[in-house]
Each structure stands twice: as structure tokens, then as C-alpha cells.
Design a protein that fits this description.
It contains 11 helices and 8 strands. The protein is α/β, with parallel strands linked by helices and 298 residues long. α1 (51-57) packs parallel to α11, α2 packs across α3 (113-123) and α4 packs antiparallel against α5 (159-169).
Length: 298
């Protein structure tokens, strides 16, 4: 049964809440009196990508992980009825935070979670106490070959080739590749991850939504200086845990955060884009250490 209340329970519970007429799904675990980690997922996944990490941290923290509109178990309205842009997705996330009356938040941001989370943080810096960044880019140095290829095709106006690339990224093989590429041990990657993503992305209307978001992704690059200025000005305690072999956002993107956050705790893993599938236990240990060492700030 899916409920709409935020509860106190170390076990993961599953909820839906109405935001702007949409049903927004989220996972929640832990005690609300403990430090809050708000987890923002990437493409083509959902809050499902955080399932192991949530279980590993729920004794010590409150964890909330939503699905964006068009992802996971949240509503997927037709594009004629909802503006699928990163601006709009960030507004829905911000409204969810307000609806649940959350504050003193540590954002965990992966992939799409970066442009969504940074938009919220720059609008509402008072909400954010810390950041955990995992393969979520905010610097030109972190733009990997896959993103560069898409950008080149877009700039050249080669729409047929671009459409083939995007279609492949949303195919089962393409999604599996995002999970497997760059891993140290592909045998540790559960097929549940990429089969779940593929099942959900193949639900009615979702392919169209993802193509619209691909088209809108270019709006993120001009905002990099604004996000960097936010980091430089506010200096939020920051943990960076990054799959070094990611060909979407390679390890150089992790190291670039030290340009504006010289005290950032940066860790590069011998892994890929979906680091948690291979190293969730190790990342959980880092998070506990990070949260404890910044206990007076978070």
C-alpha cells in the first residue's frame, strides 16, 4: 500500500503525494529527527537506483528519494499538459520539499540529479546544508565522450544520427551499457537495475518524454558558472564519490569541484556511471564519515 505520510521507520516505505496535480512517488526510510539526505536520481533510472544505499544508511539518517515526473512510479502526463524541462522538474522537486516541510537538507545528486539539485540550491540556498555528488557534472572538464558526441551531432544538425544515438541509449542494450561500462567487476551489477529501468522507460509516453529532456539538456551547460558561483560563495560541506571510468561524466569532473570547493572530500572509484551498483557499501561508509565529521553543519 502506498501512503502519503512521511513516517518514522528505518525500513523503506513507499509514498505518493500530489504536486501540481501530479502523483509524485518517493521512497523514505529512517527517523525524521535524524540528519536528512534527499536523493536525486539520474537518467534513465529512478529512486530505485538508491535502494541499497537507503537500506545501508536508514539506521542513522532520514532518507527521501523521489521519482521525477516521467520517471519511475511518478505521473507521466502528456507533453501537451506538462513542460518537460529541467527548470520544471526542479520546480516539482522544490515543491515536494516544501510539501513535506523539509529543511536542513543534504542533497545526494547523480547525473540528472545535478542540474535539478543545483537549480533548487541556487534558488533556495537556505535549504541546503551539504552535498553528496556522484557523477553529476558542473564543469566543462567533466563532459565525457558520450555527451560530446551528442553535442557534436546536435550542432551539426544531423538529426537522424542523433536520433539513433538517443534511441540506443534508451534501448535495453544501451541502458545495460550505462550500468556495465567502466565497472571493475561487471558480475556485481544486478540485472534488476537495467531491466527495471528498461521496463519503466518503455511505459506509454515515456520515450517521447525522454527525447524532449535530451533536447532540453543543453540548457544546463550555460548554468555551470552560476552553479560554480553558488558553490564558491556558500561553501557547502561536500563529498564527491565518483566512478572514474564513466564515459558520460569521467573522473575529471569530480576533481574539478576542488576549483571552487578546496575542502571537498573527493573519492574516485574504479567504476562507472552507476557507481552504487558496485560500491554502495563503500559509498555508505564514506557518507557516514562525511556526515559525522560535519555533524555541526549538517
Amino acid at each position: 500500500m502506498i501512503t502519503t505520510e512521511v513516517s518514522n521507520n528505518t525500513r523503506t516505505s513507499y509514498h505518493k503525494v500530489q504536486i501540481d496535480g501530479l502523483e509524485i512517488f518517493y521512497r523514505q526510510a529512517g527517523n525524521l529527527g535524524k540528519p536528512l539526505i534527499f536523493l536525486l536520481h539520474g537518467f534513465p533510472s529512478s529512486s530505485h537506483m538508491f535502494r541499497n544505499l537507503i537500506e545501508q544508511l536508514s539506521d542513522d539518517y532520514c532518507l527521501i528519494a523521489p521519482d521525477y515526473p516521467g520517471f519511475g512510479y511518478s505521473s507521466c502526463p502528456h507533453p501537451a499538459k506538462f513542460d518537460y524541462t529541467f527548470d520544471r522538474l526542479s520546480e516539482i522537486v522544490e515543491k515536494l520539499i516544501d510539501e513535506l516541510k523539509l529543511s536542513d537538507i543534504t542533497f545526494y545528486m547523480q547525473d540528472y540529479g545535478g542540474p535539478i539539485g543545483f537549480r533548487v540550491a541556487t534558488r533556495r540556498p537556505e535549504l541546503i546544508k551539504g552535498l553528496i555528488i556522484q557523477n553529476a557534472n558542473a564543469f566543462e572538464e567533466g563532459i565525457g565522450p558520450d555527451v560530446q558526441k551528442i553535442g557534436t551531432l546536435h550542432a551539426a544538425g544531423d538529426w537522424k544520427a542523433l536520433n539513433r544515438v538517443v534511441d540506443y541509449m534508451m534501448s535495453l542494450e544501451g541502458i545495460k551499457e550505462q550500468y556495465i561500462f567502466g565497472t571493475a567487476n561487471a558480475g556485481l551489477i544486478s540485472p534488476d537495475s537495467y531491466y527495471t529501468d528498461y521496463f519503466l522507460i518503455m511505459q506509454p509516453g515515456r520515450i517521447e518524454v525522454q527525447k524532449i529532456l535530451f533536447e532540453n539538456y543543453g540548457t544546463n551547460f550555460p548554468l555551470y558558472p552560476e552553479w560554480q558561483q553558488y558553490l564558491k560563495e556558500h561553501q557547502p560541506p561536500t563529498l564527491v564519490a565518483w566512478g572514474n571510468n564513466d564515459k558520460i561524466f569521467p573522473g575529471a569532473g569530480a576533481m574539478a569541484y576542488r576549483q571552487v570547493l578546496p575542502q571537498a572530500d573527493v573519492h574516485l572509484f574504479d567504476g562507472g556511471h552507476f557507481l552504487l551498483e558496485e560500491y554502495s557499501k563503500e559509498v555508505a561508509v564514506l557518507i557516514k564519515s562525511f556526515m559525522q565529521s560535519n555533524a555541526g553543519k549538517l
